[in-house]
Amino acid sequence: MRVRQVEIENFRGIVAGHVLFQQHTLLVGGNNIGKSTVCEALELVLGPERLYRRPVIDEHDFSHGDYIGGEGDPREIRIRVVLTDLSDEQLRRFFQHVRRWDDETFSFIDEEPDSIQSADGDGTVWALPVIFIGRYDREEDDFIGDTFFDHPLPELDDLDEDERASLGAGRAQFSRLHKRVCGFIFLRALRTGSRALSLQRGSLLDSLLRLGGEGAEEMWRDALGALQNLDPAIGEIEQLRIIRENIRTRLGKFVNLAPSENAAAFFASDLTREHLREVVRLFVATQPSNHSVPFTKQGTGSINLLVFALLTIIADLKEDQSVIFVMEEPEIALPPHTQRRVTKYVVQQMGQSIVTSHSPYVIEQFDPENVVILSRDGNTFSGAPIDTTSVKPKTYRTQRRQFAEAILSRAVFVLEGQTEMVAVHAVSSALEQVRDDYSHVDLTGVTLFNAGNDREVPRYAPIFKALGKRVYGMRDKLNAPDAADAAENIKSFDEFWESPETGIEQILVKQVSTRVLRSFLDEVVQRDDYPSSHPYVAERVADDDLAELAVKVLKARKGDAFGFGYTGTLIEQCETEADLPAFIRDALLTINEQLQDEPELILDDDTAAPGAGAAEPEE
């Protein structure tokens, strides 16, 4: 089983929206665009224990905090989920509620005229639609919510008064037992608190106990009996024994106590299973101390890995049942190699993984067809896989790390080589020093992308445009005809700059002053790696010859090994904005101006109204 589509109405920051999912899905988008909201919407529908929290929803879960409509009627939160790829067991369990689903048009065929004719058409599969509905109940002065099997409803005239007024309006309940068959697991980011590894209902340890087979009843009875029959008993500790005897003697004057010495006693707990659920905690000993402490005393990274490990055990216990594993930001407090290992395990072992992340080490584990871009257009929220026709698999694999960083960015600046990358970064750093109204490309969310050569630059424009990014491009003047599709691809750039020179070195030396060139040569000639084939003695080189010599030195020390040192050193000699190479400087100023005019999305992802701060129960 896997989630194929979710539709959201009036939940948190989403007024209306839908997201399409692949077998494995990486949800990407700007900060606070709605990634966490999508994950928590899925939990409301599919989480077995989620609806047993109180309250199920509250004021801040409604979009803009409006839970009463303009005409005084309660507004509803609605979250619809379509589940496909049902196993034989799931089909048997839900056979009364499954419907034929067209996976090409993303619609149920029973909603279309003459649907019976297309019931067995290509791309038509069995799907299970379910829905969460939540609203304010005036009679109870409280918020209510529940999940139901979703299907075309009967006419209102066919329903009795109670059914019309009910939350599901005649729909059958999608119960906790039904949800357990779906195998939904949710690992939150930064919310792995004290509850997760307790034995409270719905916690991870409680789920392990329940999935582990028979014996839970005996476990509770044995645990409570062991606490009651401790030897020596808690009450036999000297200080407690004296207090206990004093209490028994004094109470005996007023209360008809039993004759036993244990008429007043101390025990380790209330001796009920509910109390044990509250107080039992997992203790862990880690190197180098090897002393067992409550897991909450471990480091953040260790806690996250511990919770992740328990979730994988739960997934294994489900054996051949499909697991829908939702994971928020697995990179929290984890080093890069562990991020890769955790993500790789999830993608390989889970029936479906749905992941949000801001880490390139996580993102690079997903193939391009599994990347779902979340976006907003006014009040409309949507998420769809990127257009893989624009991204060749070989191109994505060879540039995986660069693509991962570009996916996280606001904009992409495609350059033709490493020297250009260094030059643009250095000019941006210089502009930051001399202009108060300029922000460095790193701070404005611009990713510099190395296309490899000048002819490759145009082909990346439609790729990044398909990711919903602003795309900029820059390259040298060509010395031969361009590729056939280059002109069309260039149209996809928001801005494109082609140099009047055939090499970046010519731009660097022709667009800076004589003072900058001489200062550059004075600096680099002292380096051990200065090219001896181009000698420089300040007194013997005329001003008119500086540009030619500087070009030779830059070309001799071009490449990854020397590029930053020499190109960066040249730009460092520029003391004013006028000193900087105008071709690169003006392009960066244009990009900066456009991005400042289009600020990053600042919608609140986890609350419904400005200033709202509803606390999420620890999980």
From TrEMBL:
Top-level taxon of origin: Bacteria
Record domain Endonuclease GajA/Old nuclease/RecF-like AAA: where: 1-49, 268-363
Region (Disordered): 600-619
Record domain OLD protein-like TOPRIM: where: 408-476
Record field: compositional bias (Low complexity): 608-619
Pfam families linked: AAA_15 (PF13175), OLD-like_TOPRIM (PF20469)
Full protein name: ATP-dependent endonuclease
